[in-house]
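We were asked to recover a plausible sequence for a given structure. The inputs and outputs are reproduced exactly as logged, with field labels preserved.

PROBLEM: sequence recovery
POSITIONS: 524
GIVEN STRUCTURE:
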């Protein structure tokens, strides 16, 4: 049936004749096919093919008809969101975009979604306008749906999409557009200041940067920075840098928007550590002199102080009431703030203890009775040079052997076998003085009393300890004897008093006996 309702024959097939006859209908030229089982096929379907078709069966006796309605469907193209806004502003209704789906038949419908949820029209917040147009030449529909939207701050990163709903031979179907994310602009509501790098502690000499940020989008690009001691803010970008900070940089720092509407603050503490060593550097003193040493510190927190002498940590601070050679060395007073990484100070004292040469000579006959050993014990700094001479000849004895020079002390030793009495002279000389000491040595035939040779400090200490022990024992014995004597004296005194009482009592007994005898005689 044509659009005006008139019938038009388009195809004929006889059961007896095998040929097929197609009527001359321009809309169906070369598009029809009628098979042997009387099935009519139409290729290259068009919208205009949506009509009422009738199958007519003609026999000798009767004519029968059976109609059918042909429906034509066309799936639309995938919808697209066109004319997208560059950005969205909060509290402002504006065009977000236009969803377009083309070439649909029959017409479809468009729905907007946000994060997978349907956007329902809300006055002055969500405004949706749907337009449908048809192409007169093709009969296909195009759907256009525009969305006006008033975003909020929470719409940042929200996904907007649209879905077109259409009908097909099997029923209702949908096609979804690609999601779109819009840049949502909103004003700054809070300002934050932070210190970079984000270290827990800051020390003198560090470089620090203050960074100010706002939570708006886009974020503010300029701020006012307020420095301790400054009344006016310093206009800068979002950062303000300070190099080689000092302790006077400690204080409260602030930043605000350029209109001073919002502000944030932070407190910076610049840690410091000062060390003063008195005296310091190279110090030369004479043996026996006193040297007060002080190491004082000033710091932002409690600091730990320790001493090092010649690369060995000392248990106590050095104190010199009477300098000795062993006190010489390189001293380091060091301090550190354990809570502040990298904050440590140290100063050095190079102590030199000088002394004029001091000489002590000893002699002894060796066990083989064939030679004698003469030792010249020398003290002094700088190290004295030692020479030996024999009185009379004045010749220098070059066979002397020296011990190691330790703590300003060493010994020079020679072995001789004199055939007669001689006098040996030991000469010790350094930059301070020349010292000469002589010692008479008998002939080898006369034994010398053995004298102790060189004694080191440990032996001297042991001898001193033994002497102290002996003195202690003697004093203890004397005290014990004194106590015993006092006790004995008290005992004797008490004994005498007791004997007097006994004698008196005995005398009284004798008198009583005599009186009894006289009384007895009288009675008789």
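RECOVERED SEQUENCE:
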């Amino acid at each position: 049936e044509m659009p005006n309702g008139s019938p038009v024959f388009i195809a004929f097939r006889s059961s007896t004749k095998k040929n097929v006859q197609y009527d001359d209908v321009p809309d169906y030229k070369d598009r029809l096919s009628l098979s042997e089982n009387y099935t009519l096929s139409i290729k290259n379907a068009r919208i205009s093919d949506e009509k009422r078709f009738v199958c007519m069966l003609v026999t000798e006796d009767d004519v029968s008809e059976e109609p059918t309605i042909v429906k034509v469907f066309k799936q639309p193209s995938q919808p697209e969101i066109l004319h997208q806004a560059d950005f969205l502003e909060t509290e402002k209704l504006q065009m977000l975009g236009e969803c377009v789906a083309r070439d649909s038949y029959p017409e479809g419908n468009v729905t907007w979604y946000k994060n997978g949820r349907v956007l329902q029209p809300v006055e002055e917040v969500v405004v949706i306008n749907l337009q449908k147009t048809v192409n007169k030449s093709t009969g296909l529909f195009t759907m256009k749906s525009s969305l006006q939207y008033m975003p909020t701050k929470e719409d940042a990163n929200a996904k907007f999409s649209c879905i077109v709903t259409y009908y097909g031979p099997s029923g209702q179907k949908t096609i979804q557009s690609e999601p779109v994310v819009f840049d949502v602009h909103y004003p700054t509501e809070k300002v934050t200041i932070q210190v970079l790098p984000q270290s827990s502690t800051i020390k003198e000499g560090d470089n620090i940067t203050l960074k100010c940020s706002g939570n708006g989008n886009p974020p503010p690009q300029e701020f006012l920075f307020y420095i301790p001691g400054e009344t006016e803010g310093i206009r800068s970008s979002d950062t303000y840098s300070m190099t080689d900070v000092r302790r006077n940089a400690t204080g409260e720092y602030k930043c605000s928007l350029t209109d001073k509407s919002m502000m944030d603050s932070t407190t910076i503490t610049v840690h410091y550590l000062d060390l003063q060593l008195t005296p310091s550097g190279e110090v030369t003193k004479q043996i026996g002199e006193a040297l007060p040493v002080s190491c004082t510190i000033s710091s932002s927190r409690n600091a730990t102080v320790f001493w090092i002498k010649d690369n060995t940590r000392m248990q106590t601070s050095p104190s010199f009431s009477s300098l000795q050679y062993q006190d010489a060395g390189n001293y380091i007073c060091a301090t550190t703030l354990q809570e502040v990484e990298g904050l440590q100070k140290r100063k050095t004292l190079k102590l030199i203890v000088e002394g004029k040469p001091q000489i002590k000579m000893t002699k002894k006959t060796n066990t083989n009775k064939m030679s004698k050993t003469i030792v010249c014990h020398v003290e002094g700094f700088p190290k004295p040079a030692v020479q030996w001479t024999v009185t009379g000849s004045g010749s220098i004895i070059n066979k002397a052997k020296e011990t190691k020079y330790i703590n300003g002390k060493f010994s020079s030793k020679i072995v001789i076998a004199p055939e007669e009495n001689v006098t040996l002279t030991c000469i010790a000389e350094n930059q301070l003085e020349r010292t000469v000491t002589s010692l008479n040595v008998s002939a080898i035939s006369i034994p010398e009393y053995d004298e102790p040779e060189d004694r080191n400090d440990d032996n001297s200490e042991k001898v001193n300890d033994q002497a102290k022990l002996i003195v202690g024992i003697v004093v203890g014995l004397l005290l014990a004897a004194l106590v015993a004597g006092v006790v004995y004296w008290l005992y004797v005194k008490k004994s005498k008093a007791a004997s007097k009482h006994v004698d008196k009592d005995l005398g009284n007994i004798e008198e009583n006996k005599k009186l009894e005898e006289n009384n007895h005689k009288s009675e008789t």
